[in-house]
Design a protein that fits this description.
- The structure holds two protein chains of two kinds.
- By secondary structure, chain A is α+β, with helices and mostly antiparallel strands.
- In chain A, about 55% of the residues lie in helices and about 15% in strands.
- The longest helix of chain A is centred in the middle third of the chain and has 68 residues.
- The radius of gyration of chain B is 16 Å and the shape is elongated.
- Classes of the chains: A alpha+beta, B mainly alpha.
- Chains A and B meet through helix 1, helix 2 and helix 3 of A and helix 1, helix 2, helix 3 and helix 4 of B.
Chain lengths: ~500, ~100
């Protein structure tokens, strides 16, 4: 047993020596007496254990030493030392935990303080007793020289555009300012300073006041308001100028219309005389004519007719533009209308070697419209088709019913209209000229009259055309009347 | 002459008995310490102390029966207690250093 015990004693001495080393090396924070006490207790316990172990080894080795005398007394110290180590360690742990919590609180407070100071808004805490408890750095900057007065409860702010013009304290503002910001001017600072202030009540602490400097925004708003006023004045002035210009334009337009109407009228009267007398002369009732005279008089009569047609067109458009044209709506049979207009142009088409195919349909198609205007529209379209269809070509005039509309189509195999011209062809005095061809006779008013009359009586006119292949003009007359209705008025056309 | 806790004699001394009683009496304090300081260090500290206590008990017990066996247990428990104290203080030192470093 002796060797085993010797080995165990040696192990215990070595272990306690190592433990003693660790105990001596225990760190102690400055000012922590409890930690120092624990360390000393642990050092003492380990040293006593080493001492007792060495004493045992010497005793088992048969060496009686002076250490034996102190062994019993030293062992008595073990328990109190352990107790002290345990209790102080516990207290030290508790103190350390409290200090850690304090440290965390300090960190948190520093963080909150940094956030408060970094925020661009001024923040002031009003306590439940109405006193200012806290104000961050930004609040100090915003309130400037009156910050201390504000903290002391002095009236330093005046509401802008509000019901209370007298100066108010932060506590007063906190009681009646809601989350919606209100603007206040800071009193006692040199330059104008406007703050937008909100108040948010807290559950227990009181009210938090948030304040933002909106002085720059107020200045911008003032400038904007000034710009807006200037702009309004400018717009008003420009409107007056526009009204004046419009009046002048209207006067000029009326003068133009009056001139055109008068001139056309003045031209038509002598023209009728020219045409009439040349016709009488051609009948040779006033004496015989030789061949040359007959030919020249024929040319005079043709030119007279052309000039009369032109004057009539100018008169028509002048009348439409003047707004003096009355719409006289009545029941109209579109098929009959088609037959009438085709018969009018039959001779002209045959003279130009153009085949004309009317397709009025088998059933009458009744609509309510102005027959005279419709007839003029169809005349102009057909006249145009004959004018631009070369000899040997064909013109087809069809009538169909599309839903509740009566649709008349004038299709020709003429020169067609270029896409560029299709948008302008309905403008007054505009004449499309196919490449390589000279402009046709006329003033370019036919289709303009068509457009104006169609708008007047509520008819829609569309154009489809392919240059070199011909054109299709579609006249869409709305509101077809059931065929059971009797045909009456337009028969006489 | 009195007998020490570490010297295995057949007759007990008053010191040994007093040590044993005191040692047992502070067990509740140690357990409370362990509960209030939830650390790895206290667990090892209590374990080491329990082995010290085993050594005390063995010292007293060897005076009445199985003197050699209890003597061996006494020295063995002391050796284990030494090792556990070494571990305890190593852990304690490491923990304190970490706390100091973090703070």
């Amino acid at each position: 047993m002796q060797p085993a015990i010797a080995i165990l004693d040696t192990i215990s001495i070595l272990a306690f020596l190592i433990a003693l080393g660790f105990a001596l090396d225990l760190p102690v924070s400055p000012g922590r007496a409890l930690e120092l006490g624990t360390k000393l207790a642990m050092v003492a316990i380990m040293a006593l254990c080493v001492f007792v172990g060495v004493s045992n080894v010497l005793e088992h080795a048969g060496i009686t030493s002076a250490l034996d005398r102190y062994e019993d007394y030293s062992e008595v110290l073990f328990v109190p030392l352990f107790m002290y180590a345990a209790v102080s360690s516990s207290n030290a742990g508790r103190v350390r935990r409290e200090m850690r919590i304090q440290q965390e609180l300090r960190v948190e407070r520093d963080f909150s303080s940094s956030v408060m100071d970094a925020t661009p808004a001024g923040i002031v805490l009003i306590g439940r007793d109405g006193k200012v408890v806290f104000g961050n750095e930004r609040a100090r900057q915003l309130l400037g020289s009156v910050f201390e007065d504000a903290f002391a409860g002095g009236p330093v702010l005046v509401e802008r555009d509000g019901a209370f013009p007298e100066p108010r304290t932060l506590a007063e503002i906190a009681t009646d300012t809601a989350a919606v910001p209100r603007r206040f001017t800071v009193l006692g600072v040199e330059e104008l300073r406007v703050l937008a202030i909100t108040a948010s009540p807290m559950a227990e602490e009181g009210v938090i006041i948030g304040m933002l400097d909106v002085t720059a925004r107020v200045s911008s708003e003032r400038e904007l308001e000034q710009y807006r006023r200037d702009l309004e004045v400018l717009v008003e002035r420009r409107t007056e100028q526009l009204v004046e210009a419009n009046l002048e334009m209207a006067a000029a337009n009326n003068a133009k219309k009056a001139f055109l109407a008068n001139m056309s009228h003045e031209l038509r009267t002598p023209l009728n005389a020219v045409i009439g007398f040349s016709g009488i002369l051609l009948t040779e009732s006033a004496g015989p004519l030789n061949a040359e005279q007959h030919k020249q008089l024929g040319m005079v009569e043709d030119a007279g007719h052309q000039l009369l047609a032109l004057v009539n067109e100018v008169l028509d458009i002048a009348r439409v533009e003047s707004g003096h044209v009355r719409v006289e709506a009545e029941k109209v049979d579109l098929g009959h209308l088609l037959t009438v207009v085709c018969s009018e142009f039959e001779l002209a088409a045959s003279q130009g070697s153009i085949k004309m195919s009317p397709e009025p349909g088998e059933e009458p198609l009744w609509v309510i419209s102005d027959p005279a205007k419709l007839l003029q529209i169809l005349r102009n379209l057909l006249s145009n088709a004959i004018k631009f269809t070369p000899p040997g070509g064909e013109i087809c005039i069809g009538l169909e019913r599309h839903g509740s509309d009566g649709v008349i189509q004038v299709r020709d195999t003429g020169v067609g209209i270029a896409p560029y011209d299709q948008g302008r062809i309905f403008s007054a005095f505009y004449q499309a000229c196919p490449p390589g061809e000279v402009k046709s006779q006329g003033a370019g008013l036919g289709l303009s009259i068509v457009r104006q009359l169609s708008e007047l009586i509520g008819v829609k006119v569309d154009l489809q055309s392919t240059p070199g292949y011909g054109s299709i003009f579609t006249v869409r007359v709305p509101a077809v009347i059931p065929s059971s209705e009797p045909r009456t008025l337009a028969r006489g056309l | 002459m009195g007998h020490t806790a570490f010297g295995g004699q057949s007759v007990y001394s008053q010191t040994e008995v007093v040590n044993l009683l005191l040692g047992i009496s502070i067990i509740p304090i140690l357990l409370a310490t362990r509960a209030s300081v939830p650390s790895q260090y206290t667990r090892w500290f209590v374990a080491a102390y329990v082995f010290m206590l085993v050594s005390y008990v063995s010292t007293v017990a060897e005076g009445y029966l199985l003197p050699d066996a209890f003597n061996l247990i006494e020295h063995g428990a002391l050796a284990v207690a030494g090792c556990l104290f070494a571990i305890t203080l190593f852990l304690r030192r490491r923990e304190l250093r970490r706390i100091l470093r973090e703070s």
